Input
Amino acid sequence: MIRIMTSEASTKVPRPEPTRHLVRATCEYFTEVQLWPLRTKLDPDRWLENFSVSEEEHATHLLGAFLYFSDAITSQLFESAFQALSLHPMFPRCAFLQAQGQWRAFFDNVLVTQVTGENPNSTDSGYAFLRMARQNLGIPQERIGSPIEIANRLLAEGPRPVVFVDDFVGSGRQCVETWKRPMALSGGRSASFEKLASVHGSSFFYCPLICTEQGFQRLQQQCVGLTLSCPHIIGASYSALAPDSLIWSDQLRPTAEEFLHGASGRAGIPEDQWKGFANLGLSLAFAHSVPDATMPIFYWEQNGWHPLIRRT
Output
């Protein structure tokens, strides 16, 4: 079910045991109040039809644990995540008017960019958050750009604060690659953000909405000079494959992986993909995208498999 996560999200909290009736009623309610989209986008009933009677209990628990973030919730999380930067130690505790002035100076100078793969494309989720930075936060378009554009501005104009925006960090690989990748810049120069952080004097922040504990630790270790500001960190127990997974009851947990593997195989999901990227085994989606770390069992559409959510 929809949950708002905090850094303590991996702590077990007593909750009602999911039943098919309860979960389907909750899904229906989420649709009615527009937390979930219409059935053409997210269809729990058709998805449950994929499973046999013997699999029903596992499937019900899996659906009950699915996290969906609508556009409205995503926007609110984004605004909160960005505003949380004001709590960074670079803004020391001081009188209100002084603190307000320091935050305004930061806001009026910050440059905003995204993390990208080796070959960026228009479907990358970061583009949605660049638009959100302009529309929701009011940051002018001239201070928003691609990593290369922002790096060129730093070299031309001097030190500035830079914020990378994103929705989700799974393994952390893409951010590490963006941070360390040498970029061909103007004037025949080449530099990475990692190098700019060490010699240029700019401050760099990464502001994703949700981050796995694994990704958080990786970024702390491999991205020296990059401050990670993430208000929602999910522990390993949010994985359907974890020995202490929060998704399953104590009775179902020992056979959960067997269920997932068997159902995924029947759907035709390749053996090297059914656990999700980096074997993270997650069950979450945003209105604008489904992360690679989410298990394909939720969005697969081949071999007659009915997706819970369509991956557009």
